């Protein structure tokens, strides 16, 4: 049996917005694995299905494309996978070309191009229910004859046509043989010829809809209105941030509670000593300090996935393109930068939506400048300690104003840095901005939840794999060597972290940092907000996270205003988060760019703190 | 009487037919690449276009209806497309 029915390999190819991923989900259900292709940071989604005849089929969801002539790393993967020359991948036996039945012109051209590859193919006309509702008549028999491929109609979101599709693919596996590949990159003349041929087939087989979709046009009149659209975008963003910060709060408290409970439980089980300290202080609290951001990240993703499925994200990119473009960024960079307000890690991972390699790299490099929520505990602590809670100009709360200033500083510096990156590294080259504005669709609840689940798994997986070894290293630095018997100061002062802190103190003295602050910066590398607990440790305040009032009053007695402002300036820019650095390395696949980012961020942090400190001292804040 | 314009000069509501994609005398790699990308997105001679929306700042970017799909692009790229405006 197994001899006769060997595993069949199927690859899904199609235009972006064709419902390809929905079809992939309908085919494979929960049996999918998400990873990266060897050597590139392009998401590889594979799923297994068992056919009625007992055959195993592995289905690969290739990145969406309009052409095999790849323009981005994602599209290169699609091209190479289709051509069977992707390192580490077995060439597909059958291609399933996924088409939006209501928007056939471009996919017909792609089908013609794919035919040159010579692999057996099936064309899936997805969203067929919408085509029928519009009264769009497609002569399936004629279309199949013109193209020379079997055609199956599907409605992925309703799981309609899935069995037919699997059966058609199986037939292709059994009967069709791959012919010679004579694909080569088409030039403009060949593209025109193919477009004309697609147009001819279109005219011959498809009768225009009797009730064309006018809803998208009407929604766009509102959402893309030059002024009104901008206002709506701002309202959506505001609602999103409200949700991210207010809905997440109880969940984050819950996670902190569980982490604390787990730590206490393990501490009670294990004897005092090194192992207990490693597991409780190192691993549980270190990983917990990053995991605590999961609720915010999930809520953010919920909005992004729902808005993307609705079709709004392309509109947001359209509205923001001029502003982003002024800084040398692509309109699409808006989404990753937005995510970075919760946490730079999902932001950097979301930069994959940007086609152009350069624009994507620029976006990754500036994403950590956005004020992530791990900075908030640091900001609130320092603001509470040093900024008087008073009203200025009649109605503005001074503390709130400083907070706003810190956010604004992050945004403005990100735009300026990307401008500099374009001038320095890309010599002013501008990538074209061109993208389809998809038809609006009501997001499917089940698929939104499913995608959210996949995103969460990826975040925990990737972040976990990066964070775990790093928190262990930081724990070693903060634990060894042990304090002497007659120690008068907290243990961390005698550790490697303490030694490093004291050794670095002369470097930080010009920006107004004392050695306790420098020591606190080291465990603060695990996640920015850990610096609050670390400051508590160095100032010997137990449970500083929950006793911030006490810590704030200690700090305001010990630090000058200039030092406090300098510390805030440091936190706007410094790459104080090893998890982010690890993700940057992963996503750029380059140590060079990771070091460039670390270098420029520390450089800016030092410069900003230096200027802040000396200006503040000159104004009497010393 | 000039009813043939660059798409980048079009205003909201303008409709027409694409008469030329790219410039015929280009020799630069970038222009060739842009022409191919436009063709792949459906901007091909004979396609019907309508300018649907303009951005807030400098009326840029623009949203174009190309036959039956919608595409956003910057006026900078739209300058590579020549259209013949429909008679009003």
UniProtKB/TrEMBL annotation, chain A:
Q: Name one GO molecular function term.
A: GTP binding
Does the keyword Nucleotide-binding belong to this entry?
yes
In the UniProt record, the signal sequence range is none
Q: How the protein sits in the membrane?
A: Multi-pass membrane protein
> Keyword GTP-binding, does the record have it?
yes
Q: Which organism is it from?
A: Brevundimonas mediterranea
Q: Where in the cell is it found?
A: Cell inner membrane
The membrane spanning regions, by residue number, are 227-248, 254-271, 283-307, 327-351, 363-387, 399-421, 463-482, 559-583, 595-616
Q: What name does UniProt use for this protein?
A: Fe(2+) transporter FeoB
The highest taxon in the source lineage is Bacteria
Can you cite an annotated GO cellular component? plasma membrane
Protein keywords = Cell inner membrane, Cell membrane, GTP-binding, Ion transport, Iron, Iron transport, Membrane, Nucleotide-binding, Transmembrane, Transmembrane helix, Transport
Domain named FeoB-type G: residues: 7-175
TrEMBL record, chain B:
Q: Name one Pfam family in it.
A: FeoA
**Annotated Ferrous iron transporter FeoA-like domain residues:** 5-85
Q: Molecular function terms in GO for this entry?
A: transition metal ion binding
InterPro entries linked: Fe-transptr_FeoA-like, FeoA, FeoA_core_dom, Transcriptional_repressor_C
Which keywords label this protein? Answer: Iron
Give the top-rank taxon of the lineage listed in the UniProt record for this protein. Answer: Bacteria
What is the name listed in the Swiss-Prot or TrEMBL entry for this protein? Ferrous iron transport protein A
């Amino acid at each position: 049996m197994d001899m006769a029915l060997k595993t069949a390999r199927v690859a899904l190819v199609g235009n972006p917005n064709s419902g390809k991923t929905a079809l992939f989900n309908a085919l494979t259900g929960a049996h999918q694995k998400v990873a990266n292709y060897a050597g590139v940071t392009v998401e590889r989604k594979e799923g297994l299905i068992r056919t009625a005849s007992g055959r195993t089929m592995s289905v690969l969801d290739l990145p969406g494309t309009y052409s095999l002539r790849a323009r981005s790393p994602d599209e290169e993967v699609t091209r190479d996978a289709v051509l069977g020359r992707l390192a580490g991948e077995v060439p597909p036996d059958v291609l399933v070309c996924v088409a939006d039945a209501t928007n056939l012109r471009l996919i017909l051209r792609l089908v013609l191009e794919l035919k040159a590859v010579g692999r057996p193919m099936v064309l899936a006309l997805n969203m067929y229910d919408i085509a029928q509702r519009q009264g769009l008549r497609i002569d399936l028999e004629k279309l199949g004859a013109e193209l020379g491929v079997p055609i199956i109609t599907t409605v992925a979101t309703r799981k309609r046509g899935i069995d037919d599709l699997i059966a058609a693919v199986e037939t292709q596996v059994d009967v069709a043989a791959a012919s010679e590949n004579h694909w080569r990159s088409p030039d403009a003349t060949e593209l025109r010829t193919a477009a004309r041929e697609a147009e001819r087939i279109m005219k011959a087989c498809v009768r225009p809809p009797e009730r064309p979709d006018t809803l998208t046009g009407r929604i766009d009149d509102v959402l893309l209105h030059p002024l009104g659209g901008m206002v709506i975008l701002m309202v959506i963003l505001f609602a999103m941030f409200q949700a991210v910060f207010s809905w997440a709060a109880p969940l984050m408290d819950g996670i902190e509670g569980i982490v604390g409970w787990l730590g206490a439980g393990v501490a009670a089980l294990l004897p005092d000593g090194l192992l207990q300290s490693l597991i409780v202080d190192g691993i549980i609290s270190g990983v917990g300090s990053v995991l605590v951001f999961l609720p915010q990240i999930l809520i953010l993703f919920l909005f992004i996935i729902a808005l993307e499925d609705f079709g709004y994200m392309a509109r947001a990119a359209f509205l923001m393109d001029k502003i982003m473009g002024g800084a040398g960024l692509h309109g699409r960079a808006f989404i990753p930068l937005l995510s970075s307000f919760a946490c730079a890690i999902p932001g950097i991972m979301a930069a994959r939506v940007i086609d152009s390699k350069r624009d994507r790299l620029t976006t990754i490099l500036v994403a950590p400048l956005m004020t992530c929520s791990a900075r908030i505990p640091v900001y609130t602590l320092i603001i509470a300690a040093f900024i008087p809670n008073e009203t200025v100009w009649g109605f503005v709360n001074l503390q709130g104003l400083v907070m706003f200033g810190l956010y604004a500083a992050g945004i403005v510096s990100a735009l300026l840095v990307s401008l500099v990156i374009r001038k320095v590294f890309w010599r002013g080259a501008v990538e074209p901005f061109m993208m389809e504005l998809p038809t609006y669709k009501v997001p499917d609840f089940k698929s939104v939840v499913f995608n959210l689940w996949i995103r969460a798994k990826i975040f925990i997986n990737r972040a976990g794999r990066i964070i775990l070894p790093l928190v262990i290293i930081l724990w070693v630095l903060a634990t060894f060597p042990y304090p002497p018997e007659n120690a008068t100061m907290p243990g961390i002062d005698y550790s490697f972290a303490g030694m490093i802190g004291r050794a670095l103190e002369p470097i930080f003295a010009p920006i107004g940092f004392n050695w306790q602050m420098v020591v606190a910066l080291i465990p603060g590398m695990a996640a920015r907000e850990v610096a609050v607990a670390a400051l508590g440790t160095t100032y010997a305040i137990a449970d500083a996270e929950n006793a911030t009032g006490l810590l704030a009053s200690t700090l305001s007695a010990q630090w000058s205003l200039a030092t406090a402002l300098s510390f805030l300036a440091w936190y706007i820019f410094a790459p104080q988060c090893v998890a982010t650095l690890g993700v940057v390395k992963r996503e750029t696949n380059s140590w060079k760019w990771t070091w460039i980012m670390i270098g420029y961020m520390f450089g800016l942090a030092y410069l900003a703190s230096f200027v802040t400190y000396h200006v503040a001292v000159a104004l009497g804040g010393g | 009487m000039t009813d043939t314009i660059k798409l980048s000069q079009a205003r909201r509501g303008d409709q027409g037919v694409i008469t030329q994609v790219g410039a015929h005398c280009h020799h630069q790699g970038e222009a060739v690449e842009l022409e191919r990308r436009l063709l792949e997105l459906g901007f091909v001679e004979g396609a019907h276009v309508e300018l649907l929306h303009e951005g807030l700042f400098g009326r840029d970017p623009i949203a174009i209806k190309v036959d039956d799909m919608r595409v956003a692009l910057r006026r900078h790229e739209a300058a590579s497309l020549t259209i013949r405006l429909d008679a009003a």
